[in-house]
Amino acid sequence: MSKAQQLLHLAETLAHEDATFFQIAGPGAGDHRTNAYVAELRSRAVAHFGHDFSEARICGDTGLRVDYFFPDEHTIIEIAFSLRNSASEFERDILKAVVAQESGCDIQNLVFLCKPGGEARHQAPASRAFMDWLYARHGIAVEIHDIRELEAVADEEGDA
């Protein structure tokens, strides 16, 4: 299992421990919940991997950081809970991957972890065009993974 898949598993496990994770809270309360979640995920990821791969400064001297970078897998991971919304960080995170690559970092994958709805939203033609361009011009493949509710995980395992 890749580190990206392991991080997705950690993220889903943590989400399933919080009965309010999949509820929309809005600005303020939602920001506090997200910050607490991200901090706990980072703590668990450090314990799991034995190294802190978060907040990687791989974009040259721009000051931009990616949420996680696994250099041995050439993979950036972005925690992008708002990806299901029309205004999200999707294009900005694509640009960060290009900047990192042009700064000398070997980037081959950009993985988004998002709340349910992000995968479906970015099957739209505009998003597909961005992903196709990123792969054609920079060789960076994009994956989008919804952090699934426990019922969805159980349904998938039952179908297997």
Please provide a written account of the structure.
The chain is of the alpha/beta class and 160 residues long. 48% of the residues lie in helices and 16% in strands. The chain has helices at residues 3-16, 29-49, 90-102, 118-121, 125-138, 150-159; strands at residues 54-56, 66-70, 75-79, 109-114, 141-146. It is globular and about 40 Å long.
Mean pLDDT reading = 91
Shape: globular
Terminal Cα separation, in Å? 17 Å
DSSP strand content: 15-25%
**Helix and strand element order:** HHEEEHEHHEH
What is the count of helical runs?
Answer: 6
Structural class by SSE content: alpha/beta
Number of domains: 1
Unreliable segments of 5+ consecutive residues? none
Sheet of most strands: 5 strands, mixed
Percent helix, as a range, is 40-55%
What's the arrangement of strands in the largest beta sheet? 1-2-3-4-5
Number of strands: 5
> What kind of oligomer do you see?
single chain
- Taking Cα atoms only, what radius of gyration do you get, to the nearest Å? 16 Å
